Amino acid sequence: MKAFIIAALTADGFIAKNSTHTPLGWTSKEDKQFFAGRTKEAGVVVMGKNTYETILRPFPGRHTIVYAAQPYEGIEVTQKSPQELLEDLEKRGFKELAVCGGSTVYTMFMEAGCVDTIYLTVEPHLFGTGMTLFNKELEAKLELISVGKLGENTVLSEYKVLN
Ligand SMILES: NC(=O)c1ccc[n+]([C@@H]2O[C@H](COP(=O)([O-])OP(=O)(O)OC[C@H]3O[C@@H](n4cnc5c(N)ncnc54)[C@H](OP(=O)(O)O)[C@@H]3O)[C@@H](O)[C@H]2O)c1
Question: What is the DSSP letter of 131?
Fold first, then answer.
């Protein structure tokens, strides 16, 4: 079982201004619709504590898992490695995992070699500085599977990760 990364970027390449900045305010309705549909298809999502703190509720219709040291009421919390988490979810009948950020968790899954697909939406927005998709040096080759307009101003690309 593999995981996919799903993220929204500004046109200058940032996922957020800082680790407490919610994506809800600047991403488009089309991106939110794509995110909801694709993550519901997976049925299970994982995110880091900082991302969860910007929303503080599970995503409806998707099993929500948060990387955190302390429990959150009503939420599955994990400290498992990406490989261990994927093995566990496979045993529980899931077929794919949606990795929903932020930079720390995207990087952890990418470094572990557990990502086979990356969905990036690019929004018509600039931050100048901010958080990038990954926060450590890494290298991977990608194949562009599809690219197109998601809405009037938003571009969606799907990449396959080549290992
Ligand atoms: N544009 C987008 O598509 C998008 C998507 C998602 C998130 N974001 C943004 O990304 C930002 C957050 O990114 P981030 O890198 O700061 O944080 P993050 O990845 O959301 O969470 C990182 C935190 O999770 C906890 N954690 C990670 N691995 C763990 C492990 N193995 N065991 C226990 N706890 C673990 C740690 O919390 P402690 O340090 O407290 O232990 C760590 O600091 C927010 O601004 C959010 O809005 C943007």
Answer: B
- Backbone angles phi and psi of 99, in degrees to 5: -95, 115
Q: What is the number of the ligand 1 atom nearest to the C-alpha of 68?
A: 34
DSSP state of 109: H
Q: Which atom of ligand 1 is nearest to the CA of 103?
A: 15
Evaluate if pTM is beyond 0.90.
yes
Atom of ligand 1 nearest to the CA of 108: 28
Q: What is the pLDDT of residues 131-150, one digit of tens each?
A: 999 999 999 999 999 999 99
Domains of the chain, each with CATH number or no CATH: 7-135 (3.40.430.10)
pLDDT number for residue 57: 87
Residues with CB under 6 A from ligand 1: 7-8, 15-16, 19-23, 47-51, 54, 67-69, 79, 100-105, 131
pLDDT in tens, 84-101: 999 999 999 999 999 999
Mutate to test the pocket of ligand 1, among 22, 32, 35, 49 (most ligand atoms within 8 A of CB): 49
Give dist(CA 41, CA 62) in Å, integer.
9
